[in-house]
Amino acid sequence: MIRARPVEGLPMSTVDLDLLSPYGWNSALAADYLPLLGADLIPARVIRMDRSECDIAAPLPTADYRSRLTAAVVRAQLPRSDAEVSGLCTGDWVAIDRGRTVRALLPRRTAIVRAAVSGQPDARAKSAHQVLAANVDTVLVCTAGDGDVDLGRIERLLALAWESGAQPIVVLTKADLAHDIPIEDVRAAAPGVTVLAVSAAGGVGMDVLAALLTGTVALIGPSGAGKSTLANALLGAEVFATQAVRDGDKRGRHTTVHRELRPLPGGGTLIDTPGLRSVGLWDAATGIGRAFSDVESLAGLCRFADCAHRTEPGCAVLAAIESGELPQRRLDSFRKLSRENDWLASRTDARLQAERKKVWKDINKSQRRMYKERGGKQR
Question: What cofactor is this protein dependent on (predicted)?
Answer without folding.
Answer: Zn(2+)
